[in-house]
Design brief:
Chain A has about 290 residues and is mostly helical. In chain A, about 70% of the residues lie in helices and about 0% in strands. In chain A, helix 3 packs across helix 9 and helix 13 packs antiparallel against helix 14. Chains A, B: It catalyses: isopentenyl diphosphate + (2E)-geranyl diphosphate = (2E,6E)-farnesyl diphosphate + diphosphate. Chains A, B: Its EC number is 2.5.1.10.
Chain lengths: ~290, ~290
Amino acid sequence: MEFKSEYKRRQDEVERGLEDQMEILEGKIPSELYKSMSYSLMAGGKRLRPVMLLEFSKFGSWDYKKAMPLACAMEMIHTYSLVHDDLPAMDNDDLRRGKPTNHKVYGENIAILAGDGLLNYSYETMIEGMASENPGYVLALREISRAAGVKGMIGGQVDDIKNEDVNIDIKTLDSINERKTGALIKASVLSGAYFSELDQDKIKNLEAYSDKMGLAFQIVDDILDVTGDVEKTGKKSGKDLENKKTTYPSVYGIEKSRKIVDGLYEKALINLKKAEADTEFLVKLTSFLCSRDY
Amino acid sequence: MEFKSEYKRRQDEVERGLEDQMEILEGKIPSELYKSMSYSLMAGGKRLRPVMLLEFSKFGSWDYKKAMPLACAMEMIHTYSLVHDDLPAMDNDDLRRGKPTNHKVYGENIAILAGDGLLNYSYETMIEGMASENPGYVLALREISRAAGVKGMIGGQVDDIKNEDVNIDIKTLDSINERKTGALIKASVLSGAYFSELDQDKIKNLEAYSDKMGLAFQIVDDILDVTGDVEKTGKKSGKDLENKKTTYPSVYGIEKSRKIVDGLYEKALINLKKAEADTEFLVKLTSFLCSRDY
């Protein structure tokens, strides 16, 4: 089957999972809050993190559908971070996924609370789903909570704020990328791997895979901020230059950055194949992520 | 022993628990983020919720100290909600617990992320502490996650925003209070009760107790907003009148509001005593909460 339709099928599955989670809240919370949460959560998007999480949850003998609460939670965490990131006091963005940002539609106060709501609901969702007998579920939950936290994504966001108007070296930049974007990508891979109860060696390999993927994903994002088409990316381009941010393209230029992505892709594939499982779709996904134009 | 010193001893225990949790992060997250989180979390405060949670965790045969991660998490959740609540886009407050609010010191962007960080760290803390063999721990975790969420506290905050410049009836006001303040108070009681593995009848009684206590606590807060001394409360008075908010004092006046608190107190005590446990301290605590001047 072609990659696009294979991806679409998985994306739709996540979409239904998210719809189910939101349906639980409908009519039970203030309608403005419900609308604001739905507006950002159901705004499309690639659903990359939950798709990856579910895919790695198929490696073991457990029914991967039991990992759906983890997958949905991952997307809620990603979405809340975007809603808060777009706020006037943060990046002050007007456009996200091709639509006005949450606070532009619902106001700053509701956007803050909708973000808080999505973060909290991600945990409610994961905790409700914990009935599963799979001991890997709790390990996955722990992995996600760490990645989303101050040692992971939130810490990366704080350091990223300081990465404006200043020159930082590549080591610092890598450390920011690793946490700001890499942490959730890595947690998507590893929480799936924990759910599948893979052994330590395989988990180490997938950790190496996800480290490379996370960095490649961020570099492609930064390249798209320079070369991207707003019609395709759904967000304004040229922001990094405007904010004088250090990025791979700002340091190495576009062409060399692309070569670095290619190198990461090759190495990531080697690690992925060591998983000794059906990685056919994941190989295509990895290739797509490194060559995407949105 | 006198109530004050009994309370102080418990408060200090919580203080040490919170210090331990923050120490784990020291040097491992961006220093500005660490300072901002500590600033609000370690700013004193009554520590009412964790003190209650631990007290109700003593009712069963489990070592109540194993409930410390839940207690700390409860205070982190309470604190993050205050940090976000004080933001310019929300209540725009300058003073909290007698000190400048978080965003006044660290800026809005860091305050938003510190709030997010505290919320996420509350779950990390609870999940790390889950090693315990006590099946009541997970029920407590679930109770807390629901209370903190959009059906609980966050939903109450959204409806509370709309309770400005408009007249709402007592039923709507009660529903806001139940969620905005009551949900976390109730969860402090119930999560302790779950941790103690109390039977359904006792839990029902404690639910009734906490419903009354939560409402009484909020009415006392609203009375203090009218009559309180900033030196004691640590926050500006007269805000509800300024924002034309409907409260018990605005509807019934101070004297009748105090009588309502007395009535709730009497009823709460009857429910509390049905717990058939050592409630000596809790009786004094309930009395204090209904008659406090800060």
